[in-house]
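Lab notebook: predicted structure, single chain.

Context: the supervisor wants predicted structures on file for every construct in the current expression panel, including those that have not yet been purified. This is the next one on the list. No modifications to the sequence; it matches the entry in the shared construct table.
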Amino acid sequence: MKLTLGRYEEAVRHRAAELAPGVERVWRRDASFWGGDDARAKSVSNRLGWLDIAAHMRERAGELAQFADQVRADGFRDAVVLGMGGSSLAPEVLRQRIADRGSDGHARLHVLDTTDPATILTTTRAIDPATTLFFVSSKSGTTIEANSLFAYFHELVRGAKGERAGANFVAITDEGTPLQALAKEHGFRRCFVNPSDIGGRYSALSYFGLVPAAVAGVDIVKLLDRGVAAMEAAKAPDGEALLLGAALGELALAGRDKCTLLVSPGIASFGLWAEQLIAESTGKEGRGILPVDGDPPVAAESYGADRAFVQLRLDGDDNAATDVLAAELVAEGHPVIAIDLADAYDLGREFFRWEFAVAIAGQVLGINPFDEPNVQESKDNTNRVLREFESSGVLDMAGIDETKEPLAITTSAHAASGDLRYVLSELLTGVEAPEYVAITAYLMQAAETDASFAGVRSAVVDARGAATTLGYGPRFLHSTGQLHKGGPPRGVFLQVTAADAEDVAIPGCPFTFGQLKRAQAIGDFQALVDHGRPVVRVHLGSDIDGGLVALRDAVVSALRAT
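Prediction complete. Output recorded below exactly as produced.
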């Protein structure tokens, strides 16, 4: 790891030296290291199991290999993770880079962490339910997305296998949860009980990350050996994980609170995992570090003075573009941290390094990095909207006219339909660093959609230097959603919704997946309004591609006019 911090170098090194004596306290699980009252200490002490989970899982590597071999022998061609946030993001990282993808008899791994009907149907049509293993992953065992997806796929498997459907399901959860009871009731193939003192976003090297990876052909021993090595290195008072945490925290205190990730293409999904870890851990009590993942690169001089950059370089990957950008950023006076990975299995090292570093950054910021007090707000709002829908049959879209295409607009201050550029001009007027623009899209993620939003993000950075983020709903509700409400009040929010061309029923529920997704969008919109965040909703209607083009053009035009 190489730090090029310019005028921040001395402050960061000083902070690391101050923190060094506390390393021993961290490993003693001394919750007082993170300060606060007795309630905080109790919360922290119940969330430190991640510190040595890599070593414990290394002892269970044979068990995981045996389970994976049996799944392979039983002829499962696909495996689907049904989960959200910390239950799904580590498997997604490993799926994209290391998983076997079925070429050697291992199951092809899919990760389904959405309520979007189009995405669910795409996965459904890519698999044969009879030969697919489903991981129902939820720490609490009550996650509405995972439970709804289970109900849907269980019915499909039961249609193919009858009463033997349970053999196609595996639960990963904590001790004593409703999901553990559900697994017993339905005769699941296996229930992996994770240590209860590990929060979801710190669970990459636990059963949540490792069981799906093992089934997909990832060498768990190799991955865990890197994690264990990182764990041992972090016990030293001058370890790199401590230094990274000191840098993230100290730079944030100095106003460099937009941690912008420059990630090699081959491990691009790591940014998605780090995004949740950083945002949900630090974004509270009006403080926080905003992770910026997938920001389209622009000229170094276009970035605001609120940025800190971390470059993750995978050896042998195409790093030319980010290498040039990193050098230009240093020349412009931006702090840059460079981390090299010898191969993709170094992700095991990085999972632990970043967990430790973010925990340290939380201490620097004076917050509890292990709770998520504002995540529940959007969930509560969603449940309220669904209850109202069940009683009235009306799903209030807060001013959206779904019959008007391609665009309808709602802001926190008023509802309007008509001049999209005018409404966006109101949202974006005066926006510049250290403010940021967050796009929250309740759409199916696809390359074309990403490209359209990349145009929007580039326009904002070029015109204002402000950081931008892109989150797909409801995934981001378990991630950056915490920082949106609990972090510094510097965000302006562009929520994007669309009509569902085809909806999907949830067995046993009075609402569909499309209606659940709409309720989640409404709930999050209301939570942002309640916190006084500037927010505009753009509804694309049924012409999503055309709507995205119009949205991009309207943003560009609005930026020129303000």
